[in-house]
TrEMBL record, chain A:
Belongs to the ARPC5 family. It comes from Amorphotheca resinae ATCC 22711. Keywords: Cytoplasm, Cytoskeleton. The keyword Cytoplasm applies. One of its GO terms (biological process) is Arp2/3 complex-mediated actin nucleation. Residues 150-160 have a biased composition (Polar residues). The keyword Cytoplasm applies. Transmembrane segments: none annotated. This is Actin-related protein 2/3 complex subunit 5. Its main location: cytoplasm. Signal peptide: none annotated.
From TrEMBL, chain B:
Belongs to the WD repeat ARPC1 family. The lineage of its organism: Eukaryota, Fungi, Dikarya, Ascomycota, Pezizomycotina. Pfam families: WD40. Coiled coil: none annotated. PANTHER family: ACTIN-RELATED PROTEIN 2/3 COMPLEX SUBUNIT 1, ACTIN-RELATED PROTEIN 2_3 COMPLEX SUBUNIT. GO terms for molecular function: actin filament binding. GO terms for biological process: Arp2/3 complex-mediated actin nucleation. InterPro entries: ARPC1, WD40/YVTN_repeat-like_dom_sf, WD40_repeat_dom_sf, WD40_rpt. It is found in: Cytoplasm, Cytoskeleton, Actin patch. This is Actin-related protein 2/3 complex subunit. Functions as component of the Arp2/3 complex which is involved in regulation of actin polymerization and together with an activating nucleation-promoting factor (NPF) mediates the formation of branched actin networks. GO terms for cellular component: actin cortical patch; Arp2/3 protein complex.
């Protein structure tokens, strides 16, 4: 009763149709606590992730690309905040971009064959999807002039339709995407479709 | 290896199937009814139709000794069909759930059955003599989402359930006056109703599609939507399990699994074929498919002649007819059940799937 009372008092002057009623229902799926769906995650600070990134880059400069990839994937900062995760995504992307196309499949097979290697490729797949999701976002913010010039008021629908043709003005993001796509193809060849289903079900997000 | 016995019943998904003890009757859940097929020579012929539900039937189970059939449906009801000389007589069971019933199984003692549901509850149903009806008791805690599947322990007291909250759980469904007090075992010593004997989750946390106790009842296997199977070896009440072994595969997720002895599991699902796992407490691994690869698919023989080649090119613009899978099932396998076996070892098992086929395999 009290909840109904509070809500109606608070929303008398408001646009009450915009209230998300699902949040008020304790049984609703939007109130489902997902923290029980993964093991306890140790918190990781952004500094630690940056330090790890430095270590990975050193390995990379030392010519040990496979070791760098392994280190980056074995230490995925599941418990970090969004900024820390973003930093680690940068690290992984750098490693991926520095590996030649001809080396991808043999390297993936070596990692997959090693004990616990399947798990590493699952983590790699998570980074590939995260990379694909985020490499399109800078393109929408890089065209403010175009937006301001149009009479239409763009609404944030979550889709970046104003980004223009990929590759035309966002050549760098297009190139990054093609690297991620070719990695994706090769990871599926080695680790199978099970790798993708685990990306979808796993609540340890990168 | 003898080739599997394929029965293509109709072009409609089969949610669940069950054979009677003498294997002469096959019950198949089709849409809102359950069809009963009788064996005639090499095939199965439609014999009877059990119409009582008004929404999709999700699960069906035939009790091996009594021959009673229990069905459950998205209309939130379960029906017990009593065999009689004039056909099957339905009795409605009071489930008291407000969401679809998803899965039903008779206990091995056949005095109870369990119904999983979307109402985050499992209804344990038993017959009350004095009122002459089936009543239910609910297992609710600590279920946090839909129950997708239930499976019984051989002692008819312990029940395993898989849920969309990614947990497989083992409960006690002990009901006074119906059950014998169970022997203390690896799952616990005192087992009042709704005791949670185990709660398991694997790292990648997929929805659980199937659960099954090993023939001895001392191990539990479950298959989840992360394309994995997980085997749990418990270690008595309030102790962490001796071993929890998770096998992540390169395949699509499994929908159903059975044990063959204590050291083998057969699982099938979205890859449309059955796979074998072998192992023990120290480790489990996928050993391969049960279908012989390279076998000519049903459509391969026709394409030999030049006439057919040109006909295909004319009709479809290509010479190869690649609309058929190489597997016997042409779509997801939803249920796998033991067909014939003794002492926990499986000689034959049956599968049914979305393609309307029921197939009997040699294990």
């Amino acid at each position: 009763m009290s909840i109904i009372q509070q809500v109606s008092n608070a929303s008398l002057g408001d646009n009450w149709r915009t209230i998300n009623i699902d949040l008020l229902d304790p049984d609703s799926s939007s109130n489902f606590d997902t923290s029980a769906l993964h093991p306890a995650l140790d918190p990781v600070s952004e500094q630690d992730v940056r330090a790890l990134g430095q270590h990975v880059r050193q390995q990379l400069r030392g010519g040990d690309a496979e070791g760098a990839l392994r280190t980056a994937l074995e230490n995925a900062p599941y418990g970090g905040d969004a900024a820390a995760k973003e930093v680690h995504l940068q690290t992984v992307t750098e490693v991926l971009q520095s590996i030649k196309a001809s080396e991808m499949t043999p390297m993936l097979q070596r990692i997959f064959g090693a004990p616990g290697g399947g798990e590493l490729l699952d983590v790699l797949m998570k980074y590939l999807y995260k990379g694909m999701a985020s490499s399109s976002s800078p393109s929408s913010s890089s065209t403010p002039a175009k937006r301001a010039g149009s009479n239409l008021t763009p609404q944030s629908t979550g889709f970046s339709q104003m980004g223009g043709r990929p590759g035309a003005q966002n050549e760098s993001s297009g190139a990054a995407m093609s690297v991620l796509l070719s990695w994706h193809e090769k990871v599926v060849d080695v680790a199978g479709l099970g790798c993708i289903t685990r990306c979808m079900t796993d609540f340890r997000k990168v | 290896m003898a080739s599997p016995e394929v029965h293509h019943l109709f072009h409609h998904p089969i949610a669940d199937h069950s054979f009677s003890a003498d294997k002469q009757t096959l019950a198949v859940a089709r849409d809102t009814s359950v069809e009963l097929y009788a064996r005639t020579g090499n095939g199965f012929k439609l014999k009877d139709e059990l119409k009582g539900h008004d929404k999709t039937v999700t699960s069906v189970d035939i009790a091996l000794k009594s021959g009673r059939i229990v069905t459950c449906s998205q209309d939130r009801n379960a029906l017990v069909w009593e065999p009689s000389p004039t056909g099957y007589k339905p009795t409605l069971v009071l489930l008291r759930i407000n969401r679809a019933a998803t899965s039903v199984r008779w206990s091995p003692s056949e005095t109870k059955f369990a119904v999983g549901s979307g109402a985050r509850a499992i209804a344990i149903c038993y017959f009350e003599e004095e009122n002459d009806w089936w009543v239910s008791k609910h297992i609710k805690k600590p279920i946090r989402s839909t129950i997708t599947t239930v499976a019984w322990h051989p002692n008819s007291v312990l029940l395993a359930a898989g849920s969309t909250d990614a947990h497989a759980r083992v409960f006690s469904s002990f009901i006074k006056g119906v059950d014998e007090r169970p022997e203390p075992g690896v799952w616990g010593e005192r087992l009042p109703f709704n005791t949670v004997c185990g709660e398991y989750l694997n790292n990648s946390a997929g929805w659980v599609h199937a659960v099954s106790f090993s023939p001895s009842g001392d191990a539990l296997a479950f298959a989840a939507h992360d394309s994995s199977i997980t085997v749990v070896y418990p270690n008595g009440a309030d102790e962490p399990p001796r071993a929890v072994i998770s096998v992540s595969t390169q395949l699509l997720p499994f929908m159903s699994l059975i044990w063959n002895g204590e050291s083998e599991i057969i699982a099938a699902g979205h890859d449309c074929e059955a796979y074998r796992f072998k192992g023990n407490e120290r480790g489990w691994q996928l050993t391969g498919s049960l279908e012989s690869k390279g076998r000519a698919g049903p459509g391969d023989a026709r394409e030999e002649t030049a006439f057919n080649m040109f006909k295909q090119m004319d009709l479809k613009g290509k010479t190869k007819d690649d609309t058929q899978l190489k597997t016997v099932h042409q779509n997801t396998i939803s249920t796998i059940r033991v067909y014939e076996g003794s002492g926990g070892a499986v000689r034959k098992f049956s599968t049914s799937g979305v393609d309307g086929r029921v197939v009997i395999w040699n294990a």
